[in-house]
């Protein structure tokens, strides 16, 4: 039914997408960038993100994001910058997406810190004689066995490096990370009312995700590659650009190309120090800014190419696909 369709469209800001695509030709490549500092301090004063040996993801995200805002403002004074978490306190994911969409962001950059669980080690200590008895009465027999002895203990996970995520529609891995990133959302009261029934396997959800992915995939993927390129350039361990299907709701919910940067592992001693240092935070901010610079150059080149060949940024083909997609949702609703 149309009503329901419109509701879905509203939820996923497809209207915003359509509008932004229609007018894109006349605009500058990037007018507004949304910076999203992950997590934040809860009302009870507790932290929400990953935990290192002495620091918290929430604080690092905040500090890096502030430096990123400064760097982008310095580099592109004409670009409007919107922060989804301007203070240290937490902002729920729904509000973050609303801020981004309401301000008609052209780019959404979420800053996070990674964590890896400790690794369990097992050392062989030799064997120990263990005596037991079998049978009853006269048949009772003493049995001596050599039982191997082990000592188990946990060591810090050596995982380190950066990863830049984009919304992926055909991969279902990295679930562990996804669950972690999703946790704040599911902790919120009435999350179902706010986010609706998030069933990543529902046809509507998949269809919308596919549409969204198609429209923004290329841009997000391009930028994520550029971010990792910059990290590698300054000697960080780049774990590359990655995709997720679930867990990065905020990337899916923002009607603009969007990336989530995992700036390093808080569970790695060396990287925890780096992530907490002024120079490390500054370096991360500069890497992301340089990537944005390359991205804008790439976008403008694309725009010029399109103009030179007399095409709008969105081809007729894409528009036709979009209309076809809207029709499909409607038909799907009628068949229920
Ligand atoms: Zn995080």
Automatic annotation (TrEMBL):
UniProt keyword list: Hydrolase, Signal
Biological processes, Gene Ontology terms: peptidoglycan catabolic process
Record Gene3D superfamilies: Zn-dependent exopeptidases
Domain MurNAc-LAA: 97-293
SMART domains registered for this protein in UniProt: Ami_3
Record-listed E.C. numbers: 3.5.1.28
Annotated signal peptide: 1-19
Listed SUPFAM superfamilies: Zn-dependent exopeptidases
Classification via Pfam families: Amidase_3
Origin superkingdom: Bacteria
GO MF term list: N-acetylmuramoyl-L-alanine amidase activity
Hydrolase listed as a keyword: yes
GO cellular component: outer membrane-bounded periplasmic space
Catalysed transformations (reactions): Hydrolyzes the link between N-acetylmuramoyl residues and L-amino acid residues in certain cell-wall glycopeptides
CDD domains: MurNAc-LAA
Name of this protein: N-acetylmuramoyl-L-alanine amidase
Protein's organism: Paraflavisolibacter caeni
